[in-house]
Amino acid sequence: MEREPLITLASRTARRSVPATAHDTFPVRSAHSGDAAALGALSEPFVRSGALCARPLSLYVEDSADFLVVDAPDGKLLGCLALRTHPASADAGRAASGILYNFCVTPCSQGHGLGTKLLTAAMVRANFLSLKTLFTATTGSGELFRRHGFAPAHVTAAPPAWVNSLSPERNSRILFRSL
After folding, report:
1. Where do the structural domains in the chain lie, given as residue ranges?
2. Residue 135 near residue 162 (C-beta atoms within 8 A)
3. Cα 101 from chain centre
4. Per-residue DSSP letters for 88-117?
5. Does domain 22-178 have CATH number 3.40.630.30?
6. Block mean pLDDT (10 aa), the chain, length 179
7. 90 φ/ψ angles, rounded to the nearest 5 degrees
């Protein structure tokens, strides 16, 4: 069985220069169930702002393997991004795809390339898993996603089970990127 590569990517942001910071040396790692409480705590400010939907701790435990995280030297999570796979559906003509969700970077770490580092690591993981397309839903500008090749998608292009799980009242926009 082929092992997933350890992801230790340098932080680089397209279209703007980011000063070198200590964030450049923080590796991206796969989360584990022991990270569930920290994932919930990291996500809480984004839930309060309306950028994320609330999730019970049990879902962070259950879905911990979906998450990529970056730790500060003191062990506190600085950022996370989850990737869930959706298998191919031959009868619907859909290739295997991935959904990016629960993307969070602490406010003090924003603007230093950490989001780019997580997104790039998720795309590396998606390629390793032979996914053909990535989707995400955003209530924000989606600027970071757009800088990395994401574009608006019609709901019919995305996995129906995921689309049906989105809350219409949040008015999320769906973005996609082919791999």
Report:
1. 22-178
2. yes
3. 5
4. -BGGGTB--EEEEEEEEE-GGGTTTTHHHH
5. yes
6. 42 33 76 97 95 95 97 94 91 87 95 94 97 94 95 92 88 94
7. -60, -40
